Amino acid sequence: MNGSAKETLLAIEDFKLFSSVGREGEAVKTPRIVSSWYEAMDVMDKCDWDNFCLNLGENYRGELLRRDRDSTSKWNKVVEEIRPRITRFVDSVNLEVHKEVLDTAKWDLLHVCIEAEFSAIIPPGFYCAQSYWYSVGHFPCGWEGEFPSGRPIIY
């Protein structure tokens, strides 16, 4: 894991995860805010959020491999190193939330670190932007409108 990924992981471990869910706050791009975990889960289902994020992650990996074939072996090593720390961090949140919420947060935060790790090849993008919402205690759960011109939906 390179210095950028290490710094990113340390910053993530300082996030006050889910501490601002349901509350408005300062925003770079005005989000639509939902008011409950139930509503967040409903938005995730309606937006097919998990598949949307999965496809972005797979597209990122495909582009990375296209630009740098040697990144394949490094990708797996980075994931093996980062995933346990992200899992411990997310699982340490003392909230009763649906497993899908925690799994989504783990996926997103893992990919924030992956974007940092490979930032010399591909500049950080979607997941880096998602990390803002996590860092201020929100949970990104969907997208309203056409991506990327629409706006995030957060709890």
Q: How many angstroms separate the termini?
A: 31 Å
Helix-strand makeup class: mainly alpha
Radius of gyration: 15 Å
User: Mean pLDDT score, rounded?
Assistant: 91
- Total number of helical segments? 6
Taken from the alpha-carbon principal axes, the silhouette is: globular
Helix percent band: 55-70%
How many structural domains does the protein architecture include? 1
Percentage of β-strand residues: 5-15%
**Low-confidence runs of at least 5 consecutive residues:** none
Please provide the ordered H/E string of secondary-structure elements. Answer: HEHHHHHEE
How are strands sequenced across the largest beta sheet? 1-3-2
Number of strand elements: 3
The largest sheet is: 3 strands, mixed
Short characterization:
The chain is mostly helical. It has six helices and three strands, in the order αβαααααββ. The protein has a three-stranded mixed β-sheet.
What does this protein structure show overall?
With 155 residues, the chain is mainly alpha-helical. It has one domain (3-21, 30-154). It is 58% helix and 7% strand. The protein is built from 6 helices and 3 strands, in the order αβαααααββ. The protein has helices at residues 3-12, 37-47, 49-67, 71-91, 99-117, 126-135; strands spanning 32-33, 140-144, 151-154. Strands 1-3-2 form a 3-stranded mixed beta sheet. Helix 4 crosses helix 5 (99-117). The longest helix is centred in the middle third of the chain and has 21 residues, at 71-91. The model has no long low-confidence stretch (mean pLDDT 91).
